[in-house]
Specification:
The complex is a heterodimer of chains A (about 375) and B (about 375). Chain A is mostly helical and about 375 residues long. Chain A has one domain (about 95-370). Chain A contains 13 helices and no strands. In chain A, helix 7 (about 165-195) runs parallel beside helix 13 and helix 9 runs antiparallel to helix 10. Chain A is globular. Chain B is about 50% helix and about 15% strand. In chain B, strand 6 (about 315-320) and strand 7 form a beta hairpin. In chain B, helix 4 (about 85-100) packs antiparallel against helix 5 (about 105-130), helix 7 runs antiparallel to helix 12 (about 270-295) and helix 12 packs parallel to helix 15. The longest helix of chain B has 29 residues, at about 105-130. The chains are: A mainly alpha (about 375), B alpha+beta (about 375). The interface of A and B includes residues 242 and 336 of A.
């Protein structure tokens, strides 16, 4: 997947179509379809992974019954490999219930709004050097801006349900997601200050020339953890899952949704996890660079063929995938270990701990850049 | 929604921007079919009114039409998480009414079983409390270990939840062959598990933030509300019927009454109520070990009367169940059917203090406080 412009030129070259408008539609539709597939496959795998991880942590087996195409792993890790696929099919065929007093139009519309945010975010999200839908120069700014669109959908979903619990969930979600945008943005700002570019490619290039950004300075190290904890809150996962706190609000703003609409929520949640992990990987953990290039200092060089073997177009995406999987695993680890915070404690953590520290980080990194 | 709120405002039931929120009877964290009517302004709670009766099965009225032996299975179904305690409390009353002298072995067996049941019940309380504050893993860990206690009970009498094990004048089955050995194995294993709960939950910073200082009830207020058992002891008041009024043969065992100390906050907060239960499991282990060490031989069916037909009279027995002081008032008019049975439910008293504790706290804290009280709706509604 390269940028849409290249795809346009490519299709124009091979297809006997005169009308450029049609070619444009095709050139946009293909990446859109691929992004959707990536989201769907990600959700399928991540849900299965999450169920197995939780089972492992809780002395259980997890899904063990459903195979796929007759393939069953028995009592192995992949014992119930077809489970999430079966669940997805079940969700798609379920009745779509809309409560009698709900705001019909908004309720139908809201899940798509929530889905839109991660979907659009994928446009600027590289998985490798040029594996990106559109490589424009405001990459990180765009990701931050678009990923926060989902909040509107959450409020709409909660309000339209005409259920007090849903409104609680929606209001909590809105407060939480908007608050945690700020430490996230401030943490990513460090990379922008240092690299001087909003483009993720440039940030990774800087890391290839110098060192992984997490090791740039003590401040970048702190910023990574602020960023990571904040994105766990941003994606509404335990210990910050108060918007959907199942023991308090049943399912928060998702309570009244079922079937396909609910599946969209699920898809978005796991897509958001993927997005924030990819951004963390690209900005802080060296993107597609191998762990052998963690620092790039004179006198510390590894032989060039060795490096080329570990960082090329084949292993590069693999490193991204590994780092992203690890971060997603850590998020799951959080979820199955920690209790949940209360609303006021969550806000305290954001406004009185993370934001002051993140602001101080920005100042200190600027000074650091002046000195070194 | 709007019209109703206006009307309630006119009546002066709710003030300002408040609304009435129904929690339950179908809610994941009300520990049964409890309905809480919550007056709330956003997240802050101003008043809670528990509505009961969704699980009312006329236990007391049923007893007036059943013979004493037939009442025992009904007591199982009151507190289904500590059914042995209910059995024990009820048969103790009937035995006292009839003046039955129990064989030593029966007393020892009853103590062992009752303390195992206390462990199982406290595991449930600790696990679901973890679930209430958002941690799912402690819940499954506690259930894994509770399962082993239930396995022991299944080995003992065939039932896993509702046992009908303790009979008037004895128990239904003697201990099976390897029971003592299996129980020792379980206790050895279980003692290493409690530190694990402490690692995942007790010492967790978030858990302490959520539970310390929340839902404080001072000892005097707790006494006024009639709180008993772990909930009262967590407020620092040392009161345990096993020590105060040693029924059965509890006076022969060496164990401590655990009281709350306000380790992470005020005395009598949710954290204390939780931790008292953890420590009580250690005490139960102690008692079981002592009882198993000097259990005598004998026939467990020896003292079972041919006909349970007490003389005219009435009796009130008190029993330290896992949830607090369980009382049975049994009145006999000389027939084989009780003329009146009244149960004093410990969880009912605990629940009555909910408004006192939760007022001014937030939505999430209501769940925390309710979880820390460890109520069982079967027992409250009876």
């Amino acid at each position: 997947m390269t940028s849409v412009n290249n795809l346009f030129e490519f299709i124009k070259g091979i297809a006997p179509i005169e009308d450029t408008a049609i070619i444009w539609v095709i050139a946009v539709a293909i990446p859109a379809l691929i992004v959707f597939l990536v989201m769907a496959v990600n959700a399928l795998i991540a849900v299965y992974f999450e169920r197995k991880v939780s089972a492992f942590m809780q002395d259980r087996l997890g899904p063990m019954e459903v195979g796929i195409f007759g393939f069953k792993g028995g009592r192995k890790f992949w014992g119930g490999i077809g489970q999430t696929l079966a669940d997805a099919i079940k969700l798609l065929t379920k009745e779509d219930i809309i409560p009698a007093d709900a705001d019909r139009k908004v309720m139908i519309f809201a899940p798509f709004f929530i889905f839109l945010a991660p979907f659009l975010t994928f446009i600027a999200l590289p998985l490798y050097e040029n594996v990106i839908v559109s490589n424009f120069n405001i990459g990180i700014l765009y990701i931050l801006a678009v990923s926060s669109v989902g909040v509107i959908g959450v409020i709409l979903a909660g309000w339209a349900s005409n259920n007090k619990w849903s409104v609680y969930g929606a209001m909590r979600a809105a407060a939480q997601m908007i608050s945690y945008e700020i430490p996230i943005a401030l943490s990513l700002m460090l990379a922008i200050i240092v690299v001087g570019s909003l483009q993720i490619n440039d940030i990774v290039q800087w890391q290839a020339d110098n060192r992984w950004f997490i090791l740039h300075s003590p401040f970048a190290f702190i910023a990574f953890f602020i960023y990571f904890v904040s994105v766990v809150a941003e994606t509404n996962r335990t210990p910050f899952d108060i918007p959907e706190a199942e023991s308090e609000l049943v399912a928060g703003w998702m309570t009244e949704f079922s079937g396909f609409r609910w599946a969209l929520f699920f898809l978005s949640e796991y897509a958001n996890m993927l997005i924030v992990s990819v951004v963390a990987t690209m900005v802080f953990l060296g993107g597609w660079l191998s762990p052998f290039e963690i620092v790039n200092m004179p006198g510390f060089d590894l032989p060039q063929p060795f490096l080329a073997f570990f960082t090329n177009s084949v292993t590069g995406p693999m490193w991204v995938l590994l780092k992203v999987s690890f971060l997603i695993f850590v998020m799951m680890w959080f979820r199955w270990t920690f209790p949940r915070l209360r609303v006021d404690q969550l806000m305290y953590l954001c406004w009185k701990v993370f934001i002051p520290f993140a602001l101080a980080n920005v100042v200190f990194v600027s000074i650091w850049e002046l000195i070194f | 929604m709007g019209m109703n709120t206006e009307y309630l405002k006119e009546l002066g039931i709710i003030k300002g921007d408040e609304m009435i929120l129904n929690m339950g009877p179908q809610h994941p964290s009300t520990h049964g079919v409890l309905r809480l009517k919550i007056h709330t302004d956003g997240e802050i709670i101003s008043y809670i009114e528990p509505h009961l009766g969704y699980l009312h099965r006329c236990f007391e009225k049923h007893c007036e039409n059943l013979s004493y032996e037939q009442c025992i299975p009904y007591t199982d179904r009151c507190d289904y998480l500590a059914a042995m305690h209910m059995n024990h409390g009820f048969v103790m009353g009937v035995e006292k009414l009839m003046g039955i002298e129990l064989p030593e072995r029966v007393e020892y067996i009853r103590i062992i079983i009752a303390e195992l049941q206390r462990i199982a019940s406290h595991l449930m309380a600790v696990g679901t409390f973890g679930l209430d504050v958002g941690g799912i893993t402690p819940f499954t860990w506690c259930f894994r270990d509770r399962e082993r206690v239930l396995d022991l009970f299944e080995y003992l009498c065939g039932a896993r939840l509702l046992y009908n094990y303790m009979w008037v004048g004895g128990v239904s089955h003697d201990l099976p062959k390897d029971f003592i050995k299996r129980t020792t194995e379980f206790l050895d294993y279980f003692e290493t598990q409690i530190p694990e709960y402490n690692q995942i939950l007790t010492g967790n910073k978030i858990f302490i933030e959520r539970t310390a200082d929340v839902g404080v009830i001072p000892a005097d207020v707790a006494l006024n509300y009639g709180l008993t058992g772990p909930n009262l002891r967590a407020s620092g008041h040392s009161y345990d019927l096993r020590k105060e009024e040693p029924y059965s043969i509890y006076d022969r065992f060496d164990f401590d009454v655990v009281v709350g100390e306000g380790t992470h906050g005020t005395l009598g907060d949710c954290w204390d109520r939780y931790y008292v239960r953890i420590l009580e499991m250690y005490e139960s282990i102690k008692i079981i070990r002592q009882a198993m060490a000097d259990i005598p031989n004998g026939d467990v069916h020896e003292a079972i009367p041919k006909k349970v037909k007490p003389l005219k009279g009435d009796i009130y027995t008190r029993y330290e169940s896992a949830r607090g002081e369980l009382g049975f008032y049994i009145k006999s008019n000389g027939k084989n059917i009780p003329s009146r049975v009244k149960m004093r439910s410990p969880a009912f008293a605990s629940l009555s203090a909910l408004n006192e504790m939760a007022e001014g706290w937030m939505m999430s804290d209501v769940i925390t406080i309710l979880g820390s009280l460890d109520i069982v709706l079967g027992e409250i509604d009876r």
